[in-house]
Specification:
By secondary structure, the chain is α+β, with helices and mostly antiparallel strands. Helix content is about 35%, strand content about 20%. The chain is built from three helices and five strands, in the order βββββααα. Strand 1 and strand 2 form a beta hairpin.
Length: about 90
């Protein structure tokens, strides 16, 4: 009998729905304290997962869930940058 591979699930901090890890985008706070988008999903540091939709990102920012999950305040410049990147990935699909 073939053993089924376990699919890791993560919670989107925007819409609060569990989805497979590969469907979500990871935002990471590196050990140096820099916040960035993690396209590979393997960077070291504290991560927060979000759907690749701008609506979810806006909900996470409005509810301060992004700051709470990363345990650090996030600047408005970085929020605008991440929002633009998510808009770009959303339009590619």
């Amino acid at each position: 009998m073939i053993k089924q591979k376990k699919i890791p699930l993560r919670l989107c901090i925007g819409c609060r729905v569990k989805k497979p890890k590969k469907e979500l985008v990871r935002i990471v706070k590196t050990p140096e304290g820099k916040v960035a988008l993690d396209s590979s999903g393997k960077k070291a540091g504290r991560g927060a997962y979000i759907c690749p939709r701008e609506v979810c990102f806006k909900q996470a920012v409005k509810g301060k869930r992004l700051e709470r999950n990363l345990q650090q305040p996030v600047s408005s410049d970085l929020i605008a940058e991440i929002s633009a990147l998510l808009r770009q990935t959303e339009s590619e699909k």
